[in-house]
Amino acid sequence: MTRVVLLGAPPGPISPPPPGGQPALPADITLKSLPGAPSAYDRLLAQAAALDPEPTTIARPWDAAAYRGPYGRVVESPDVAGDLRALADAVEDAEENLLILPADSLVHDELIYQITKAKRGAIALVVRQQREELDEDAPPVEEEVPIEEAEPEIGDKVIEGLPQRTRIGRSRIVSVGTAYHAVTRPNAALLGPLHLHQRHLQTLAEVARELADMAHLFGPEDDVTELLVLGLVRRGVSVGRRGRRDLFFRRVHSQAEADEALTEMADYNEDRARLKNAVKGADGFFTTFFVSTYSRFIARWAARRGLTPNQVTLISIALGLLSAGAFATGTRWGAVAGAVLIYFAFVFDCVDGQLARYARKFGVLGAWLDATFDRFKEYAVFVGLAVGATVSGQFGDGEGVWTLALVAIALQSVKHLLDFSFGAANRRKAPVPLPTLDLTVADDRPLREALEERRASRSTGVRGLLKLWTKAGKFRPVHWARKMIVFPIGERFAAIAITAAFFNPRVTFLTLIVWGGVAATYTLTGRLLRSLA
To answer: Which entry of 58, 260, 312, 422 is 20 to 30 Å from 67 by CA?
Structure first.
């Protein structure tokens, strides 16, 4: 379960408010085009209740009655300092992960799901500054100085009504500013949603209370989420960042804004985004271009007909065993049939995971079946190929082919053992700590200097070599070459299918051994270097 806290008091404008008075409460904004025409708050509360049966809403005393719903509880707070203290009280003893959402959020269910299922221990939703396209007739713009020479600033720019006072890097938030804290070249704004792993909640509670004591230094535009991320970053917590991508999020402050947002939201295909997310982003070359291009649609078809991931896994196992049986006939047509069957065994092996992610049906049994029977299918096919070579008489008594089969099995088993053992050891390895900075320091120069020193120290020796190799992955040919060289399951099944259909079992096993040996050497070298780094 995930603990959910909704923030009922939106930040004020960074500049004088536009005509029209105070923003409307989410409970008073009707989402007219949605079934049942719920209020913006009722819809968000229902989304929160899917994660937490008793979501907490922090609201101003004069607004509290509007936020009282059929479930959840409302905590009254007079100001930002009270919000921070109430949040600290709500989470410090929590044993679950935490999701913080502004109460004025209009958001897709799938975006909430993706944020809460992110692998990072802390992640915030951000919107990045858009690069302006210059008019050819416009006067020349003064070039920016290098960031190393830039001065921290308290920015007055806004993105979607929120202050642009956050500096983001390639994967995480580097620095956050407020009306008191200056940031070196801010390039983004925090939209409001923040998800934290349970291990960070004690730190969150501590910084929330410390920030509450500094509330007199902040401006009305400083959002609670902005302050929390500021505290976490300065305590050395790595806060990841993500954008909305192909999903919808908007904070609505009036009925007109809500109507406009609903019109815009209707142009987004949430199901397509959900289906896209069902495909693993780190798949190999063969899987990405020859399987996942259509297997996701099989997964959706299966989900709509009530099939479970375990049932699809059983289909994959059956196809794998039929493939082994076809190879065992020792005939050319048997080899072709076996190649086709092993290809579709792998297709359905991908479908079961995609179905689990799309339908959100996860289980320990399914994960165990998938991991165990991948090897079972593969080794059954090895045996089928060796039996077929013996039955055909093409290789005498087949003893040489059986030897190759055993070598291929042994090599693959050792490679998997090394992968799993390194993964287990790597999970126990403590991450290199990020630099910290006291919350009372007004600008982020000391933090950036410490980050530069950390970056420089990690750019020499073995770490420098690994970093260079990582950067090389930005080039697509290198990226896919690195994916293929490790000989993942998609490439192995493709190699078996192609060599068995067009050549013979001996060529198949030699291909598996040679490519597998290169993969094992590459992988072992990388594991050793990362262990020494």
So the answer is: 260
pLDDT digits (tens, 9 = 90+) for 339-396: 999 999 999 999 999 999 999 988 777 777 777 888 899 999 999 999 999 999 888 7
Closest CA to 348 of 386, 393, 296: 296
Query: Token pair for residue 307?
Result: 């099939």
| Cα separations in angstroms, 462 against 7, 50, 468, 482, 527 | 46, 46, 10, 19, 12
Contacts of 170 (CB under 8 A, 6+ apart): none
Whether the CB-CB separation of 327 and 338 falls below 8 Å is answered with yes
Identify residue 33 by its one-letter amino acid code.
S
CA distance 262 to 45: 18
Contacts of residue 27, Cβ cutoff 8 Å, sequence gap at least 6 = 39, 40, 41, 42, 66, 67
pLDDT in tens, 98-151: 999 999 999 999 999 999 999 899 999 999 987 654 444 545 445 566 677 788
**Coil, helix or strand at residue 184:** strand
Catalytic residue numbers, as ranges: 374
CA distance 208 to 237: 14
